[in-house]
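In this supplementary section we document a worked example of the pipeline. Step one takes a protein sequence of length 729 as its only input; no multiple sequence alignment statistics are reported here. Step two produces a three-dimensional model, which step three serialises into structure tokens for compact storage. The input and output of this example are shown verbatim.
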Amino acid sequence: MKKIFSGILIIVSLIRIDFILAEDGKISGFIFDKSTNQPIPNANIILSNSAKGAASQAGGYFFINNIPWGKYDVAVKVIGYESQTESSVPIGENTKLNFHLTPQPIQFDPIIVSASLSEHRQSQISVSTEILTSAKLQKQTGSTAGEALESVGGLYIKNYDGFAGVLSPSIRGSNTNQVVVLLDDMRLNTAQGGGVDLNSFPTAALERIEVVRGGHSTIVGSDALGGAIQLVSKEAITPKGFSYGLNTTVASFGSRMVNVFGSHKIGLLSYFVNYNMTQSDGDFTYKTPGTGEKKIRENNDYKGNNLFLKTKLDLNANNRIQLIYHDLHGEKGAAGSVNINSWSGESMLTPNARSKYDRRLLSLQSTNQVFDRLRFEELFYYQTYDFNYKDPDGWAPTDDLHENKTLGLNLRGFYHFNSALSLAAGAELRKDQLKSTKFVVEDRDIQSFFAQAEINHNIHLFTLGTKWTWVPAVRWDNYSDMNSFTSPKLGLIIGTGENTNFALRGNIGQSFRAPAFDDLYWPDEGWGKGNPNLDPEISTNMDVGFVLSQKSSLFIQGEMSYFNNDVENLIAWGPEASGIWTPLNIGKARIQGVETGIKFNQPEDLFSLNIFHTWMKATDETPKSLKKGKRLIYRPDSKLDIAGGIKIGQLNLNLNYRIVSKRYTSTDNEQTLPNYQLLNGNIGYRLMLAGFSVDTKLDVLNILDKSVYLNDGFPMPGREVRFTMGLNY
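The serialised model returned by step three reads:
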């Protein structure tokens, strides 16, 4: 009893410190981005004629204690934003003051959430990341998240049938089901498995896309062996308080799109709503492998409806509530592979196969700045994903329906001791369910606990001042249908400055992927069956590299990273002695490579150039296997992206050139797909008229009209033209 009483006394004493220190004057508040209303961490707040100052925490919150009462000029400075000063601010017992900073023309150091448990500036995290901001998304050629991500370094998009097909990601040589995809912190990956189709999410509803390269299970749990992708929806609050618009697109192959959006702030309540309708006939002409005969792709149509709603309620400066609802319905033809079955000699096309899917997401999130040093975040989410596949022409007619449900609660707490130490910790409870006409599964209950520290200290090396940031983290996940897993990670970044910065960064840790329901419970159909005794895939991953950047009116950055990922217990389907195919933990793999990037931006984006190259070697390292040392399938050794843009008044011109090396399509490396080159581009113009903006954009994909197969048997469209016109207010 004495120990419990002593513990309570210590906690109460820590909380009382804030009140004791606040007996003199105090100022506190939040720092926000004026254009996105996102919090800005690491901003410097300075009081004139005083030695007092502070830096904003994650969440944008700042406070300064022990200030003699009086009037002060309060200035806020942070690289990437215009400085702002409030003059003659009377500071008393508890003064509140918020700042909304205007971004400078070059947004070179955006805020990222996915890399850690809260908001951080990209230059101050140890992991390798890429952020497609709103401005970058407007420059991209394409209309969906998947198309926008195709040019991101270290990331390879598997594309089935173009605009109407499936776009699934691979990061640093991972499988698509080894990448976690999130929408506003809600996991989109289902327990059934199969990855996430990024073609289902229009960029019109997104504020930015965050990509984390490398194992990330410490933060997001299962499936993050390759990394994570976070889709961040547009903000409910705009700088002028409201915004409405209508955009329409017409394109090749009978494709068309309508997008309607609106946002408004009314008192304490604000909202953002976006509706997108997309249709495509998908009847492009392609060349058959080998013969080069021209044919028309059939049963490749698509129709999708996408509704997104976000509302925010600012109860006060310290407490906010956010509600998000997302409803996606899609229906498409499943054209099948254009290859010929080597056993039967018959076509593998499925002219009458159809698939339907419905995804519904609901989340309630609150943020509470409880005390100066303590902040809580709570997230409750519910997701359903129904998938129906029909093929009346198979050797056995198919009509399967899979209904996935996920219910979860995520709690996080952040305690800011001082500039040298911050702690974050939390817990997550999740239940995964699957009701299927194909097989019966057990519900999966998951309990997770995670913690992360940020330790900062300055060291002078000779005459050079450096800032060291250590980021130790650990996560524990307990599964009701298998064992528990621990995912440790240690990150380090050493930086030398702000305007001119040379930073060394590195990470080492473990990640895992729990077997999917399909792997565990697939029924015995005579040719294959699941395996309930599977162990999780485990990876040990590390990376080390540097970033050199010059931040002034011009922005120049160079970076290089080496990464290595050793994966054990790889789950692979193969035949048993009886000839029945089943998944087994028989594989090991090693994936290593070097990423090199250069970025250059002129003020106001008058000219920009990004070059990123990935060299990678992904090999099968399964002991005593005939395939040991062979390349893993669909992992190119080399990918080069060159993106450039110019701006002349209200006219924007952007080009993206991509070169991808050959990919092996068989585990014995006897069959390959050839290397390919793609040139995409767009030209856009904005006309301002009486408070309205009239936007036009012409996208051209595959400008050189190349015949390309990204996946064996699934041709990509040739030259594709899309014209978009929008009216926004």
